[in-house]
Specification:
single chain, mainly alpha, Four Helix Bundle (Hemerythrin (Met), subunit A), globular
Length: 129
C-alpha cells in the first residue's frame, strides 16, 4: 500500500469503529463501547503516525495511546492528554477477565456517557490535526 492508502485505511477503520462504539453505547454495552472507543483513538493515532513521519509505513504494534501520540509527533494540550490517559485504560480493563469485573462495575451509565463524550472530544481534536 502507498502512504496515502495506509493513512486512509487507518482513518476509515477508525470511522467505522466510531459508529460501532455509538451503537454499543446506545444498546447499553458500556464496557465494549469504551473498549471500541479506545480502538478509534488508537487507529486515528496510527494514521497520524504515518502521515507525520515521512519514513514510516508500518505502525508500531502497540496500544498505548500516550506512546502513539508521541510517535505521531503531536503536541497534545493537557486537557486532551488527560482524557487520553483515561481512555488508555479501557484497552486492558475491557480485554482481560481479571480486570473486566471491576471495569463493568465502574461503567455505570453516567460514567460511560461521560467517557463517550471524552472520546468524541479527543476524536474531534485528532481529526483537526
Amino acid at each position: 500500500m502507498k502512504k496515502e492508502e495506509l493513512i486512509n485505511f487507518w482513518f476509515e477503520s477508525a470511522e467505522n469503529d466510531l459508529d460501532t462504539m455509538r451503537l454499543l453505547y446506545k444498546n447499553k454495552k458500556n464496557t465494549w463501547s469504551l473498549f471500541i472507543g479506545h480502538l478509534v483513538v488508537e487507529k486515528l493515532l496510527k494514521g497520524l503516525i504515518i502521515r507525520n513521519n515521512s519514513d514510516v509505513l508500518i505502525v508500531p504494534k502497540i496500544h498505548n495511546l500516550i506512546l502513539l501520540s508521541q510517535k505521531a509527533k503531536l503536541v497534545v494540550p493537557n486537557k486532551i492528554k488527560e482524557k487520553i490517559q483515561v481512555i488508555n485504560t479501557f484497552n486492558i480493563s475491557a480485554r482481560y477477565d481479571d480486570y473486566k469485573k471491576t471495569f463493568e462495575e465502574k461503567c455505570t451509565d453516567s460514567y460511560t456517557k461521560n467517557q463517550i463524550n471524552n472520546i468524541e472530544e479527543v476524536v474531534k481534536w485528532l481529526k483537526e490535526q
